Each structure stands twice: as structure tokens, then as C-alpha cells.
Amino acid sequence: MKYIVLTLLLISSLWSADLEWSDDYEASLKVAQKENKDVYVLITSASCRWCRKFENTTLQDESVLKMLNEKYIIVHTDRDMDELPSWMNAKRVPKHYFVTAEGKEIFSFLGYWDSLDFKSFLGDVDKKRKEKIKSGEIK
User: Fold this and answer.
1) To which H or E segment does residue 16 belong?
2) Measuring CA to CA, which of 67, 101, 107, 116 is 20 to 30 A from 32?
3) Does position 34 have pLDDT exceeding 90, yes or no?
4) Mean pLDDT of 31-37
């Protein structure tokens, strides 16, 4: 019983963070188009300890939350329960995808990352986006 209560508290801490999570990828693309933002998709699974660590550390960092809120519509999915496009490979989790509002991949990476490293990846996403715009791969 203790483990169930603890698990529920840990999960609820993710949802109480200052991010507005969605589990609907298609609906999030529509919101991203309206708000002129990209989409960040976090794919996890219920049995993944690194997913919980990422949710309970990195995603609780105020500077990370601010960066995500400014530029992205946020989607959190479970690879075993939620529908995602077939091109999103999530054999291992946590998996991070950054896509345009039109659903084109900008950048993706795998694993748990602490706040400092994750913020560095967010900078990499910006660079990759600019490169892809310049090459005409995305708008």
C-alpha cells in the first residue's frame, strides 16, 4: 500500500509542475499551429525508472520549465498506451522528440538528462531548427 501511495504522489508531482501537459499528439499539433510554437513530445513507460527520475528532477527545475513553456506545446505519452505516429520510435525510453507544428521532426534524443544537459539540448534544438529552415526541410 505504501508503494501505491508513493507512486501516486510521484506521478502527481509531474502534473503539478508548471507545464500544461497533453497526451494527445494530434490535438497538440493544432494548438501549436494556433500559438506558433513547436511541439515537445516526451515518451515514457510506466516501468521506466529513468523516466521517473527525469520527471522528478529535470522537469521540476524552474529554468527548464520556463524554457519549455516559452517555445513548446508539451506532450507526455506512454509508449505502451498512447497513439503516436509510426515514425516515432520509442523502443527505449525516455525518448524526446521536438517537432514542428506540421509534425516534422526537428531533433530527437534518448535518455535521462539532468537540467544543465537538457537545457543544452534545447539550445541544440534551436540550432537544428535554424539549419532545417535554411535548407528548406521545414518552414
Assistant:
1) helix 2-16
2) 116
3) yes
4) 96
